[in-house]
Design a protein that fits this description.
Bound molecules: magnesium ion
Largest interface: A-B, 68 and 68 residues
Domain Ribulose bisphosphate carboxylase large subunit C-terminal (chains A, B): 114-283, 315-392
Helix content of chain A: 40-55%
Largest sheet of chain A: 8 strands, parallel
Cofactor (chains A, B): Mg(2+)
Distance between the termini of chain A: 51 Å
Number of domains of chain A: 2
CATH architecture of the largest domain in chain A: Alpha-Beta Barrel
CATH class of the largest domain in chain A: Alpha Beta
CATH topology of the largest domain in chain A: TIM Barrel
CATH superfamily of the largest domain in chain A: Ribulose bisphosphate carboxylase, large subunit, C-terminal domain
Radius of gyration of chain A: 23 Å
Low-confidence stretches of chain A: none
Modified residues (N6-carboxylysine) (chains A, B): 160
Shape of chain A: globular
Oligomer: homodimer
Strand order of the largest sheet of chain A: 12-11-9-8-7-6-5-13
Structural class of chain A: alpha/beta
Catalytic activity (chains A, B): 5-methylsulfanyl-2,3-dioxopentyl phosphate = 2-hydroxy-5-methylsulfanyl-3-oxopent-1-enyl phosphate
Strand content of chain A: 15-25%
Organism (chains A, B): Paenalkalicoccus suaedae
């Protein structure tokens, strides 16, 4: 028998066991004690079970196990079961989920994951560095090419579209893919470094699969996807498609509507961690604990753990984002280790000497940290890093 | 020029205009005052505009207008623009949206809506009555047929699956459709009343369209859909499909994760009201203001208004649900009027004389209210209604 186990945060001081029993029955067989023995025997394997209740007033947790026989092995059915009607039932937050291995294996997980992406890029011994295009709305393909070239030559491993850049007449999706491939091929020929470009896969749901397949044929090296504007199952379908054989980067857009409240919704570690990994995200962006748009460090730790801890699936890359500049690299490496992607927008394009220098400064900071050299010492030799630290500082 | 206008609830007492400018620029052209005049001219039509700020400390609102030229006319692109990154930006709730008519017309809205469903059922002068199957998990097709027959004969206009009943070996999706049609055809022949059965459309996203088309071919008369376990755009694709020519009933499962917090997420009137209607839901279930799983009446009023106020789209049926019994019918009619569906599960199956009597009691209550007869007076003549009121009471 397979199960999904879900843990909920609820107000403390209630009759927890009664509440838990109500959930376990209400979301499975409906009722129990008043059923005839024959019906109980028939329904036993469908019945939800209360696994634990813990009152730590003012908050308490309830853990319930739902038999997988009640749903089809897809995320919409599971979400509807464990947090469908229940999401509407007063103060309650879904704070953990667990699939047993047999059930988990029915989901793809990352098709590349950390090892696959390292293989693609040819980097195995340091955190990767990623940059984001700056202000592309209203700009054309020349600007696109200039920015991509500068970022790639500066030394980043990945470049991503901004999540608000959709298919548009100035920089059409397919043109971005084709020109992106051309530029990155040239950079590889000249520098030996393979850089991936994650183009924003957008548009109508039922067109996404064909659009992604076409992009891959045209030379796309990665996809950016606003999962939560669509649905986790759509991500899964893209991840499972054998023709869409490039890494998929999940953007957290809209996810704050589900995760931000302490009392309602779904925990970041569940939504951006466990569910995105199960559904097949290869890289997961989330707010870093440092910037202006920040998450508490316990939450970013929990996301990173959910993406990388041993499970039946490959590990996905944590990509702590927002407010990142070279002075934060020691913090990023300390907090997220080598299995992470250092991602910057303003911290690259805002560099006094331009985007390429901004990218170089990040690579210099990473090298310094891995060499156990302080940023100050490294900056004595590295002009780009020195300029970055002069501008943004170097918090201890 | 077309626009989406979005209003956000944020903490009061900030420098609101600065915050609003930051949002309007950050989610469109990125920056403005430091741009050369030539670039400003080029980017002008892409720039977000602050329409209003209102400080009513402790809370304040910000209204921003986003040019539609920045996104493709689909809900994922719009959500990503107006509440993508922004959903992660501290305490903020999306409390209103508006599409101008030109933009709104690029969305289907309900394909049947209130008038179309009245036409299908042949009822034009009273609220409709709907019932839900009881505890079908673990049960077989005999139980399905028995329950459907009792509910339909009792006098309801619509019957819906429970949202947690997925495709399963005991009551397979296609069998439910075929047997449902057979039973409802018989009821129509014998009583002259047309009853719709909304089968739960579930499974993998990319299979839904074919599954729904097949269901319609097999005689499905309506579809239940857990929109928020998938995505609004998937609902839209189902609504737009000419072969899926039956009403679609949107279930609010999982929506509480987005709507329940007063400070974060998306308002019910936006998510269950405006967006479901634009995307094409014909009927929208939401928690009634009366039951144990209840919404504040201001919120249910706002949902019902968003579903029915004059727009470029057909009106969708508000379906206030949960905790409904015949004694509440006067309240439902007072609060939601004739353009609503009265929806009950326990209030039908829990009737002392069974589900058919439970359905009949609801119809008797509706007739009494429309005749301006009190339920007490009506109950003198109507045994089923009398038994229901005896059991559940009749709150004033
Ligand atoms: Mg961005
Ligand atoms: Mg239900």
């Amino acid at each position: 028998m397979s199960f999904v186990t879900a843990t909920y945060l609820v107000p403390g001081g209630l009759d927890l066991h009664k509440k838990a029993e109500g959930i376990a029955l209400g979301l499975t067989v409906g009722s129990w004690t008043d059923l005839p023995a024959l019906e109980q025997a028939q329904l036993k394997k469908h019945k939800g079970e209360v696994i634990a209740t813990n009152d730590g007033t003012p908050k308490a947790t309830i853990t319930i196990r739902y038999p997988a026989v009640n749903f089809t092995p897809d995320i919409p059915a599971i979400l509807t079961t464990i947090f469908g009607k229940l999401s509407l039932d007063g103060e309650i937050k879904l704070v953990d989920i667990a699939f047993d291995d047999a059930l988990a294996k029915q989901f793809p997980g990352p098709q590349f994951g950390v090892d696959g992406i390292r293989e693609l890029i040819g980097v195995h011994d340091r955190p990767l560095v990623m940059s984001i295009f700056k202000g592309m709305i209203g700009k054309g393909l020349d600007e696109f090419e200039t920015q991509l070239d500068a970022q790639a030559r500066g030394g980043v491993d990945l470049v991503k579209d901004d999540e608000i850049l959709f298919d548009n007449p100035l920089t059409p999706f397919e043109e971005r893919v084709k020109r992106g491939k051309h530029i990155l091929d040239k950079v590889e020929q000249e520098t030996g470094r393979r850089v991936l470009y994650a183009v924003n896969l957008s548009g109508r749901t039922f067109e996404l699969r064909d659009k992604a397949r076409k992009a891959v044929k045209l030379g796309a090296s990665a996809l950016l996807f606003n999962v939560f504007a669509y649905g986790l199952d759509t991500l899964q379908a893209l991840a499972e498609d054998p023709e869409i054989n490039v890494p998929i980067m999940a953007h957290p857009a809209v996810s704050g509507a589900l995760t931000a409240s302490p009392d309602y919704g779904i925990a970041n570690s569940v939504l951006l961690g466990k569910l995105l990994r199960i559904a097949g995200a290869d890289l997961v962006l989330f707010p870093s604990p440092y910037g202006s748009v920040a998450l508490p460090k316990e939450e970013t730790d929990a996301i990173a753990l959910a993406l990388t801890e041993p499970t039946v699936h490959r590990a996905a890359y944590p990509v702590p984002s927002a407010g990142i500049h070279p002075g934060l690299v020691p913090h990023l490496v300390r907090d997220f280790g080598e299995i992470s992607v250092i991602n910057a927008g303003g911290g690259i394009h805002g560099h006094p000497d331009g985007s390429a220098a901004g990218a170089t400064a990040f690579r210099q900071a990473v090298d310094a940290v891995l060499d156990d050299t302080s940023l100050e010492d490294a900056a004595l030799q590295k002009a780009e890093l020195a300029a970055a630290i002069k501008l943004w500082g170097h918090p201890l």
